[in-house]
TrEMBL record:
Protein name stated in the entry: DUF547 domain-containing protein
InterPro entries: DUF547 (IPR006869)
Originating organism: Bizionia hallyeonensis
Residues spanning the signal sequence: 1-20
Pfam families: DUF547 (PF04784)
Domain of life: Bacteria
Keywords: Signal
Domain called DUF547: residue spans: 68-173
Length: 234
């Protein structure tokens, strides 16, 4: 009798032919450049009509998981790409929808096959990525919503990771639909409220913002938080 996990994977359209290979993130870059605009808009309709490219990439996570010998950047890139790719998978498996919140328990569903287990998006975000002392991950992982950071239309790779994380952080802060930054007043994304602890590991929130903002923010600037749109990022 086959392992129940194996049967579940077959239902997802995966095969085990990728056994032994390393993750090829370039395949995800090719996929993203076909289906994600420069503004981060995702063409879920087209992906749903032909999800073979996505499944080929996701298939790799079944047999390849981070090793102790990996660098921090290799591990971060692995988990960021996993989060983004499996979020797309979750959306197309339930498409058409108007919001990820139309799906029952979207972040707690255990459907991500890694290292012989089925993981959830919440596990990747809270139990893995948030414990790696890299607050910029919040601008790299994208939960398929309009107020989320823009989905980068290339995969995160270890060799470019620091530059990529800086780019998406600056881009998010400069987007006036998500953050409005002035010297003495801030209207910020609720991401900075929900995950405030992560941005204060090495100082205050304003200290963090001043590293990446084009505007020099006063230490006593007043902070408000903007409404968050969960409308699908399509």
């Amino acid at each position: 009798m086959k392992n129940p996990l194996y049967l579940i994977l077959l239902l997802f359209g995966f095969s085990l032919s990728a056994f032994g290979q390393t993750i090829n993130h370039s395949a995800f870059t090719e996929f993203l450049q076909k289906h994600v605009s420069n503004k981060g808009e995702v063409d879920y309709k087209t992906i749903k009509a032909n999800d073979s490219e996505l499944n080929t990439y996701l298939n790799q996570f079944i047999t390849v998981s981070p090793k102790e010998s990996w660098t921090k950047n290799e591990t971060l890139a692995y988990w960021i790409n996993a989060y983004n790719a499996f979020t797309i998978k979750l959306i197309i498996d339930n498409y058409p929808i108007e919001s990820i919140k139309d799906i029952k328990n979207p972040w707690d569903q255990e459907f991500i096959p890694i290292n012989g287990k089925l993981l959830s998006l919440n596990y990747i975000e809270h139990d893995v990525l948030r414990n790696m002392n890299e607050p910029r991950i919040h601008f790299a992982i994208v939960c398929a919503s309009a107020s989320c950071p823009q989905l980068l239309n290339e995969a995160y790779i270890p060799e470019k990771l620091d530059k990529q994380l800086t780019t998406v952080t600056k881009q998010f802060l400069a987007d006036s639909s998500k953050n409005r930054i002035q010297k003495n007043s801030l209207e910020l994304s609720k991401i900075f409220k929900w995950f405030s602890k992560d941005f204060k590991e090495n100082g205050s929130l304003i200290n963090f913002l001043n590293i990446y903002s084009d505007v020099k923010i006063a230490s006593d600037a007043k902070i408000k938080y903007l409404d968050y749109s969960w409308k699908l990022n399509d």
